[in-house]
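Limitations

Structures in this collection are predictions, not experimental determinations, and the ligand pose is part of the prediction. Treat each record accordingly. The example that follows, with FE2/S2 (inorganic) cluster as the small molecule, is included so readers can see exactly what is and is not provided: the inputs are given verbatim, and the output is the predicted complex.
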Amino acid sequence: MGSVKITFKVDGVETTIDGEMNKTILDSAIENDIDAPYSCRGGACATCIGKLKSGTVELEQNYILTDSEIEEGLIITCQAFPTSENIYVDADDI
Ligand code: FES
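Predicted complex:
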């Protein structure tokens, strides 16, 4: 599968990693030792919420975010699969 550049900002620190299109943004972040917030990994708790500042994703499951929150760019990273080659997620701007 293709790779994707993911920049993740958490606690004021930006890190860019090579992720994979067939993995969630959270899984790619964890595999690259980014201290990304999460808890349930099932789309239910919103601990992994972040703002998508560039790129596009597809949410596999979403029990939490409203349509207007999604329009604002909020995503839950444990359910977000990249659908573009450059992604920027800001976990601080929520
Ligand atoms: S970790 Fe619970 S919704 Fe993502």
